[in-house]
Amino acid sequence: MKRTLFVFLILIFAPLTQAASGFETIVAKIKPSVVGVGISDPMGSPRNVLQGTGFAVGDGTLIVTNFHVVEKALDPESYQQRVVFIGIGESPKISPAEIIKTDPGHDLAILKIKDSLPPLTLADDTYLPDGRDVAFTGFPIGAILGLYPATHRGMIAALTPVVIPSANAQQLSIQMMKRLKEPFMVYQMDATAYPGNSGSPVYDINSGEVVALINKVFVKESKEAALSAPSGISYSIPVKYLHALMAELE
What we know:
Layout: H1 2-30, E1 34-40, E2 48-57, E3 62-65, H2 67-70, E4 81-86, E5 93-96, E6 98-103, E7 108-112, E8 133-138, H3 142-145, E9 150-161, H4 174-181, E10 185-190, E11 201-204, E12 210-217, H5 225-228, E13 233-238, H6 239-247
Antiparallel strand pairs: 1-2, 1-4, 2-3, 3-7, 4-5, 6-7, 8-9, 8-11, 9-10, 10-13, 11-12, 12-13
Keywords: Signal
InterPro entries: Peptidase_S1_PA, Peptidase_S1_PA_chymotrypsin
Pfam families: Trypsin_2
């Protein structure tokens, strides 16, 4: 009887162990392709500022991130330089980056660096179904925690228009009004992302293919509340829009 019970337990837990091992392998392959995106200023304090996350695609010299991560112009009166932080820890390699393509409407930007990283594989344009398990790797609160990539799991909760009308029409900005006329679909995710995660690759936990980019989080009260009381609702840009932007480089 004891032997039968022992064999039964092995059969139950063996698949769980194998599944965990498979996901760990996927994360290990993803991490070397994930970078920090920010600004370097030898005369500033601090000298290096992490503004978001990015990841390598194409030939490995192309870095994808959100447009809002690189939207702010550099100070022309300083020695500021847009850079990509490569590696892990307190002394990453700093690689100068050039913005070569942007799509502000879909919050996408492509940077070019001289270094070459292992590129991630992009999924096709097919929208994912609700309930699909995904993960994302990036630098949550990177300005505080440093360049240590963290991975979070979640699932696709819904495919929804990028802008949901406000209860009070006075809360609608001009930009929001424009998007209401031409809405596009984004993923609402049951997953917790933080400032610094912008631009993080969202990928299928089984294949490792990138399906979206973290774009924003739902904030219940204030920006500070995103840290102290996260809503657990994040949004990401489907990879189909990135395919279209990359096609413009050809």
